[in-house]
Amino acid sequence: MKDVRTDNESILAIDVYIVNTVGSSSTTHKFYTIDKKTKTLLTLPSLFKKDSDYITKLSEYIKAEMKRQNEKGENTYWVDDPTFEGFENIKEKQNFYINNDGRIVICFDKYEVAPGSSGSPEFVIPDEVVKDVLK
Description:
Blueprint: E1 2-7, E2 11-22, E3 24-35, E4 40-42, H1 54-72, E5 96-98, E6 104-107, E7 122-124, H2 127-130
Antiparallel strand pairs: 1-2, 2-3, 3-4, 5-6, 6-7
């Protein structure tokens, strides 16, 4: 299956996903984000300055947001949880797309960082988190 997440003058972002159903279901996503102006497939590392510690910056923001949502009862994430191997850091090849507002959205598969009832969590990264490390 596929879903167009962003389609504007600059960006085309497509989510290609598979839903596996056997008793319960799991969903696996693969995002493709294309810069229409340069006609290139964007990768997460390609968005950031060389040797910038963008993985730590993004991971710290996401971890703080997970904790905030846990505390407010908005969702349940496996972060600082001794029962589960919790979220520590995003991967270099982490799923992402750029939304219509031009913001990076970091995406996780179902069960990757939270129970299945949370679906496939996404985190919109505020501009101020990445402004000093973006190209």
